[in-house]
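Notes to self, 2-nitropropane dioxygenase:
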Amino acid sequence: MAKPSQIRVFEVACPDCSAILRIDAETGLLISHTPAPRKRTFEDLAAATKAMREHEERKESIFRQSVEAEKNKSDLLEKKFAEALKKAKDAPEGRPLREFDLD
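result:
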């Protein structure tokens, strides 16, 4: 067995997660893994609070829009139905022509 002073170890930074990997040169096995330090999402508590308020306002706005859309849904569906009925009356009667029938 090799003495601790004779062991060759490589330290490699992971290109994906920036973790530090210690690898034994002789065997190529991983000796240790040191995870990369986590990045802070916000610099301070005030910024985090502001982001949270903006997120809540955005959720509330989306909810209000969905309520308004639901209120007008029946009118929209009636208009779509009337338009489809009008198209069906204007369409020629009989079976539609297919490319196969034209040969």
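- The chain has a mean pLDDT of 86.
- Residues 7-34 form one domain.
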